[in-house]
Amino acid sequence: MERTYIMLKPDAVKRKVIGNIISRIESKGYSITSMKMFNLDEAILKDHYSHLIDKPFFPDLVAFMTSGPVIGMIVEGDDVVVGMRNLMGPTKWVEAMPGTIRGDFANSTTENLIHGSDSVENANIEIKRFFG
Ligand code: DAT
Ligand code: MG
């Protein structure tokens, strides 16, 4: 059984759509096997978003991701890494089709509601980073 790391971002909590998003994950048939609400800091974001540190939007990304609590989850299922990326929709909200989480809720590229690991290898790294 494959595992992925999913994180509901501060905008999802503030906009009160975490129930809707969790419901979509469960409706798809995936299992949430761990879940916690917590706050991120700049140090862990520099690890988690190390591929983006040099981008001009990185300070805005850190400000947003530390603006309120997030919900981290381990989600299990067959091919769940790619399956969750499909359920989420692409990074850029303008490219996300209706029916996807970002397509239905996002109207900003920074504030796009949900994180999902992009490979099985990164899923294992992220699960270790956030759940130890
Ligand atoms: P994803 O979250 O789809 O895996 P990513 O890893 O490339 O995308 O980027 C991480 C987050 O950084 C993304 O969810 C939102 C933000 N981001 C990425 N590209 C951006 C851009 N061009 N402008 C503003 N924020 C961006
Ligand atoms: Mg990513």
List the SSEs and their pairings.
Blueprint: E1 2-8, H1 10-14, H2 18-27, E2 31-38, H3 42-48, H4 58-65, E3 70-77, H5 80-88, H6 101-105, E4 114-116, H7 120-131
Antiparallel strand pairs: 1-3, 1-4, 2-3
Bound molecules: 2'-deoxyadenosine-5'-diphosphate and magnesium ion (MG).
Could you characterize what this model shows?
The protein contains seven helices and four strands; from the N terminus they run E-H-H-E-H-H-E-H-H-E-H. The model has no long low-confidence stretch (mean pLDDT 98). Helix content is 42%, strand content 20%. The protein has one domain: Alpha-Beta Plaits, CATH 3.30.70. A four-stranded antiparallel β-sheet has the order 2-3-1-4. Bound molecules: 2'-deoxyadenosine-5'-diphosphate (DAT) and magnesium ion (MG).
Task: Name its key features.
globular, binds 2'-deoxyadenosine-5'-diphosphate, about 40% helix, about 130 residues, binds magnesium ion, alpha+beta, 4-stranded antiparallel β-sheet
